[in-house]
Structures are given as structure tokens and as C-alpha cells.
Design goal:
3-stranded antiparallel β-sheet, 4 helices, about 100 residues, NE0471 N-terminal domain-like, alpha+beta
Length: about 100
């Protein structure tokens, strides 16, 4: 099938371009997941987040924490941003994002 060239005005061409343009979807900005509480059992580290989730991971994922004393484990600091947890004495840092991945 052969199609003849059609003469379009500048306005018509602009409208066709606009109609065919792929519009980017609006992406909803998600609130960051932040640590609000931390605790331990003998075998796991638990982190509660601002969206009320509780993340539990085996303590042996973090050898420094696994080998730390109970006192050293309890000496954590949640970062001011809430995005990470730090243990100064054993030089361990864990990000909330890392726990979720």
C-alpha cells in the first residue's frame, strides 16, 4: 500500500508530535525507611522501622556483632537520619537499606 505525502501545517505537525509524545509517568516519592529501635536475641538482630516493620536477620551475618559482648551490642547509636546503626566500640555500621536488600 502506497501512502501519499500529506501537507500539514506547522500547528498540525506540533499537535501530532504532542499526541505521539511518550509522557513520563509521575513517580511518587517514597518516604525513606528509617530505624527507630534495635534489639537482639542470641541468634538475631532486629530493627524496627518508622513504617512499623520489623526486620530480623541472623547475627552471624555480622561477625563483629556476633563476637561482641552483650554490653558492646547494646552500645549502638541510630544515626540522626535514622538510615543507619553504628557501634563505635566495635567499629560496625549497618544501613537500614542494606538490611532490606
Amino acid at each position: 500500500m502506497y501512502q501519499e505525502d500529506i501537507s500539514l501545517t506547522k500547528e498540525q505537525k506540533a499537535q501530532i508530535s504532542q499526541d505521539l509524545a511518550i509522557k513520563k509517568p509521575k513517580v511518587k516519592k517514597l518516604n525513606p525507611v528509617l530505624a527507630t529501635n534495635v534489639w537482639f536475641t542470641k541468634s538475631h538482630l532486629f530493627v524496627e522501622t518508622n513504617d512499623r516493620r520489623i526486620i530480623g536477620v541472623p547475627i552471624d551475618w555480622f561477625p563483629l556483632l556476633e563476637n561482641a559482648t552483650e554490653k558492646q551490642r547494646q552500645a549502638f547509636e541510630i544515626s540522626p537520619s535514622g538510615r543507619g546503626i553504628h557501634w563505635d566500640e566495635i567499629d560496625e555500621d549497618i544501613s537500614v537499606a542494606g538490611l532490606l536488600n
